[in-house]
Amino acid sequence: MSGNPYGVREVLQEATRRLAEAGLEGPRMEARRLLRWATGCDAASLLTRDELTGPELSRMQDGLARRCARVPLALIEGEAEFWTLTLRVSAATLIPRGDSETVIDTLLALRPVRSAPFAFLDLGTGTGCLLLAALSEYRNATGVGLDLSPEAAALARENARLNELDDRASFVAGNWFAPLEGRFDIVLSNPPYIRIADMDDLMPEVRDHEPHRALVAGEDGLDAYREILSGAGRFLAAGGLLVFEIGIGQEDDLVLLAAGAGFVCVAMRRDLGGIVRALAFERKI
Hints:
By secondary structure, the protein is α/β, with parallel strands linked by helices. It folds into two domains: 8-69; 79-283, 3-Layer(aba) Sandwich (Rossmann fold). Helices cover 39% and strands 20% of the residues. Helix 1 (8-21) packs across helix 2 (27-39) and helix 1 runs parallel beside helix 4. The longest helix is centred in the N-terminal third of the chain and has 15 residues, at 54-68. The radius of gyration is 21 Å and the shape is elongated. Its EC number is 2.1.1.297. Keywords: Methyltransferase, S-adenosyl-L-methionine, Transferase.
């Protein structure tokens, strides 16, 4: 590194260059985020800084090396934004994505009464993002989040506490419906939906650093939906709603699968990229 190795401008320029060489899009933006993470400063505070301290520079170099190795930026930072929440993330869960907010948009459109005391169930909860976002909108609702991974369930509990929703949310580890009792008004799920054959085509951030059990769902990507649909009828209350996140082009197959399990599609919603990303179902009358 030429110039002052501790200088904020020099560090930012070097980081931008290395990130660009690693093939990352938006390298300057990512360099700025890494610099804010390394220093603990916001963007405005960084403008007043001329140099990094030794520990800050070491932290920046470590984060930069990890990002150039395609470790997701959210895993380096340790958190991600979802809906109106800030959530802790770890290698035990998928990183919350903006596409998944389409599930919450769909829910709000179909169940607009925010004071309703709904009982929610979030299957494959991960960080707890869907359940916690729903509870943040429905102030009298309660919910249960379930994940196969005990580490994910523990992380979701921490996120509930950090967002002051732990009095209305509980999280358990288990395989789909196995540890559950009772009925729920609304079931949400962002289950695995990637085909085995498509794994090699995923971005390295996803393929190499996020849990495969939360990504892959058999030869056609629909295995998790089959399992959920086979059991949902026993746990969904009368008039209840089932809302899925889906993969690209899966809507027609999933509508057929759901119909065979006694469900009718009542809404289909696109994400900001124009892709059908959420489907909502109710039981056939």
